[in-house]
Here is the input.
Amino acid sequence: MAETTEQAKPLAASAFQSLSDEEEALSTQLKLHQRKCIKCCGCFIAFLLILAVTVLVLFFTVFHIKDPVVRMNTLTLDLEPLLLPNGSFSFRTDANVTLLADISLKNPNFASFKFNNGTTTVLYGGTVVGEARTPSEKAKARRTIHMNVTVNMIPEKILEVASWVKDAISGSLTVSTSTVIDGKVKILNIIKKHLAVEVNCTIKYHFLSQEIQENCRPHFL
Ligand SMILES: *[C@@H]1O[C@H](CO)[C@@H](O)[C@H](O)[C@H]1NC(C)=O
Ligand SMILES: *[C@@H]1O[C@H](CO)[C@@H](O)[C@H](O)[C@H]1NC(C)=O
Ligand SMILES: *[C@@H]1O[C@H](CO)[C@@H](O)[C@H](O)[C@H]1NC(C)=O
Ligand SMILES: *[C@@H]1O[C@H](CO)[C@@H](O)[C@H](O)[C@H]1NC(C)=O
Ligand SMILES: *[C@@H]1O[C@H](CO)[C@@H](O)[C@H](O)[C@H]1NC(C)=O
Here is the structure.
């Protein structure tokens, strides 16, 4: 009896167990399936998130095209040759008067910036008294390039300006310069952006000290 009860118990238990085992197996399978699904969904969502973050980061860094930074580092102007050495207010028109501009261009982008021929114009009293070309060049990604531009001014044009004598007597005169640089940034031939910058300067030249005071401002076109 003891044996049968002992045998029956495990039998019953095993029968009960086998049923619950089946159920359990099914439920574990279901759970596994669910877990797989959750894992899958989690992976997919994580992947989407990573993709979104990557796209956002790229959008704000690599694909975000910024304007170049153009600076007039050194401006040199010498109008002394215009004056005759005998101290009178007579001027020579065969003098070579030049304006030298050391221009730097910083390209903050992750792609190179190619720009066309530009011009640097010198104005005095609203009249163009000199003009020079700035070369077409390529500024590599995140690099700064320097350009030396020499503007040969036309003495006759300066002497033609009505205020010239008054300015010469007062000891200083003010000219303005305008430099325009325009070009393109291309990223993988997909994203193209046209960028143009104009730098206008006013330069006050003092005859006695031969010093200049400059004030430059860039404008984005
Ligand atoms: C100064 O020199 C120029 C050219 O040499 C001459 O025409 C002018 O008369 C001179 N002026 C004086 C005050 O000597
Ligand atoms: C101006 O420059 C030219 C060419 O560089 C030269 O032939 C001429 O003598 C110069 N004139 C003066 C006044 O220095
Ligand atoms: C740039 O300047 C050079 C020399 O003056 C000229 O031959 C060329 O046609 C110019 N290019 C443009 C795009 O203006
Ligand atoms: C520009 O001129 C300065 C002084 O004359 C010189 O040191 C510099 O190397 C020049 N830069 C270029 C790019 O020609
Ligand atoms: C810069 O100078 C040029 C030439 O004088 C002028 O046409 C332009 O309007 C100026 N730009 C600004 C923003 O003042």
